[in-house]
């Protein structure tokens, strides 16, 4: 009798994030307390986490180091939102926020800063706040601003930025992602490829990894429910309400299939974080842990 074994994904470092516990904001009564998140992410079998929204976890480095050490957890990255397409006028406010997140990220021993472009809808009301398409001038501001941000973050904090294509932002579809990559310096600006967001926006993660592998520096593992997504697309449902409908689902129930994505990432021959994120804001407090445990078992079965 012959048996098949999962590939050894020894270049992939799996973790999770507050997002998988329904956390989108620094403080929100619908979210689980940070202590419960830390307890449960450790219980689920993860050793790597992201900081999530700045202010959700303690921002005092000594306290956070102690809280993480007691649970055998380590930080892979911090996260910031930016609106650099709006031009030089937003730089000072952007840098003020980025600097505080970068400082904490560095203090945790992490090397990455995940940068998410600002939404063109309000993140709570889903109201349209600006055009979903950038002008040529705005694309120039976005590309130039990201390069400047990458340079400053590297010089001052020793961190590399990973730009996160995201639904309801200006870096979303394959067309927009490729335009952004072609407009930026690969020595400075690379991607956090979120498999769920990219599928949500019609992209093929395996194709992107194989075509632009040298630009993929970080992964978020996520799946979308194809039936719910079809309805979301047909009815132009904003991302927030789509999440509440359950458009993001636990693997292996959705798309893209994660084993081919992980195999393509392994083939790049570099160490990559692959952080599980299942958007569930808001969700019942007892929902995340069982999903996280099942997802960790699934990923181990894939070799990660």
UniProtKB/TrEMBL annotation:
Domain Xylose isomerase-like TIM barrel, chain residue ranges per copy: 38-300
Top-level taxonomic group: Bacteria
Record's keyword terms, sorted: Isomerase
InterPro entries according to UniProt: IolE/XylAMocC-like (IPR050312), Xyl_isomerase-like_sf (IPR036237), Xyl_isomerase-like_TIM-brl (IPR013022)
Pfam families in the cross-refs: AP_endonuc_2 (PF01261)
GO molecular function: isomerase activity
Protein name: Sugar phosphate isomerase/epimerase
Origin species: Streptantibioticus ferralitis
